[in-house]
Write a structure and sequence with these properties.
By secondary structure, this protein is an all-beta fold. The protein is 0% helix and 43% strand.
């Protein structure tokens, strides 16, 4: 687990995140030892990924994705729901898609345990996740 992710290059701060009580992990899984370098935005792109859990009872989880080719840049911040996003290679092309659970109805018409939700697959196309 990392405390507060900060990334610098030549003494210049490129990225920083902190949140009281939050837990950060390198990689797409909320555990130590996950591989933080994954192909998500294209076959020629190498991405750095870290996961964030805000520490709540069942909220909020997110993936932070950065492109390392041609300079460092944040590509996406995916998630912020009650379920952790997961990586799946749906079309078996070597580039992972992101599975998120749409829980927009959590606790709207019922308790959290009885709330409706559904999985959504996000693919990186035209510079963003769709």
């Amino acid at each position: 687990m990392i405390k507060q992710p900060s990334l610098k290059e030549d003494g210049v701060l490129l990225y920083h995140d902190e949140d009281i009580g939050a837990h950060f992990f390198f990689g797409a899984e909320l555990q130590e030892g996950s591989n933080p370098f994954i192909r998500l935005t294209g076959k020629d792109d190498l991405n750095l990924v870290f996961s964030k859990w805000t520490g709540g009872m069942h909220c909020c989880y997110s993936l932070h994705i950065f492109r390392l080719n041609d300079g460092f840049q944040e590509v996406a911040d995916v998630g912020h729901g009650n379920f952790a996003p997961s990586l799946v290679d749906v079309d078996q092309d070597g580039i992972f898609e992101i599975n998120v659970t749409d829980d927009i109805l959590a606790e709207v018409f019922s308790s959290f345990a009885d709330s409706e939700s559904g999985d959504v697959i996000l693919r990186f196309k035209h510079g963003k996740y769709q």
